[in-house]
Every structure is written in C-alpha cells, then in structure tokens.
C-alpha cells in the first residue's frame, strides 16, 4: 500500500486522535491534505483544522466514504454507535485501524456488517513526540499488506510490536496506560526534590532527565532493568537506602496491581 496515495480518515479528534495526527504529520507519513478528522464538537474540529491544516467533517459516514484507511479513535463506550453510522459506507476496500481500548476486532467487524478489513492497535500518548509504544494485531479480512501499512503508520510514531489479540488487554494495561504511571512517579520525584530543598524548576529538570536517561540506558545497552539497578546500588550507599523504603511500601507490587487493574478494565470495556 502506497501511503502517499491514501486518504486517511480519523474518527474522533480527542487526545489520542490529535496525538496520531501530530505524529504522522511530523514524521511525514501523511501530508495534512491527506487527513480528515471527524468529531462531535465543532469547536474541537476548528482547533484541529487551524492547528494542523487538515480537513474536518461532522458526518462519520461521509468521512468513511471519502477515506481508504480509517483510524477509529473514539471511546470504547461510543464505538458501537459510531460503527453503525459507518456500516453503510463500508466495503472491502476500506481498512479500519482501531485503537479503542478493549474492543476486539471481531466486534468492530460485526458492527460494520463484516464487510471490512480490521487491524487493532494500542498506541500511547507519546505519539505526540514520536515515542509511542504500540502493539498491533491482525483482525478479520486484514492482509499481510494491511499489517505492513499499519506498521509503517505506527512505527513513524515510535516503537511497534506484533502480538496475538488475546494479549492486547495486557498491552493496554502496561503501555497504553503506562504513561500515566510514569507521570505520577515523575510528579512524586519532583515533589520529593522540593521537600528536600531544591527549587521546583531544578527538581523538575533533574527528575525529567533522570527518567529519560534511565529509559534510554535500558534501550541503548540492552541490559536488563535488574542488572542496571544493581550497577547503581552500592553496598551501604544512598540508593539501597532509598530502595529499601520503596520495597517496604510495596512499590513494585503496587505497580503490578495497577497494570493488572487496567488490564481487567480493558477486558470489561470490550464486553
């Protein structure tokens, strides 16, 4: 599939829809003129049109009619109603890429009367800065060429992996919701820095770079997180004292519980 010739429609102009728009334009996967977005809020459409020079539409059915690849970026709770609006405009020439948390590809296909090609994706909001972690899986009607096209789109937004659909709820719990866990940890580090005497500006700069540097270290060295943690932890030093407090508070267990809870919620949204 030649993405330069694709007419891309995006159903939903919320935070993730905007992240994808900004990312794919920044990465030059699509030009602004190739993209149309629909949303229920006229003010939101005006903002997206003015900000990214894309086309907008308030009619979901028309958007599907005019597009060859459609990204479903609406909330799972409203997806059934939106898909029913679009069903009459759908045929086998249309490729749907759904990022709706918890919604199975079979469900999307059924709502579109089975007359479609579907791929499921779970990116995260780091798509805004081309650093998304995205998992992809094939659904009804999708070809290997369709999956390659989806990989091109989402790889432009960051890192992609292919998984079986049965693992997509786990992906949602980990990397889909994961940025919020990291932001909470970052907020805690900054507040802690202020508590021990740093200015908020200095604490924010140090904490942000620390998280970024640690993540980059894992990626660049290919070392395990456990091994890298051991390298920082000297016998009787400052780091082991801090880690001891985190372990006593059940830090790792809480993070694991958070991912599990988000995974379960993703499953519930899909029912």
Throw out a few tags for this protein.
single chain, 271 residues, alpha/beta, Rossmann fold, ProC C-terminal domain-like fold, 2 domains, eight-stranded mixed beta sheet, 8 strands
Textual characterization of the structure:
By secondary structure, the protein is an alpha/beta fold. The protein has helices at residues 15-26, 42-52, 60-66, 79-86, 105-111, 144-155, 168-176, 178-195, 200-221, 225-232, 238-248, 251-269; strands at 8-11, 35-38, 55-57, 69-72, 95-98, 117-122, 132-138, 158-162. The chain is built from twelve helices and eight strands. The protein has an eight-stranded mixed sheet with strand order 3-2-1-4-5-6-7-8, with helices on both faces. Strand 2, helix 2 (42-52) and strand 3 (55-57) form a beta-alpha-beta unit. The protein is elongated, with a radius of gyration of 21 Å. The relative contact order is 0.10. The mean pLDDT is 94.
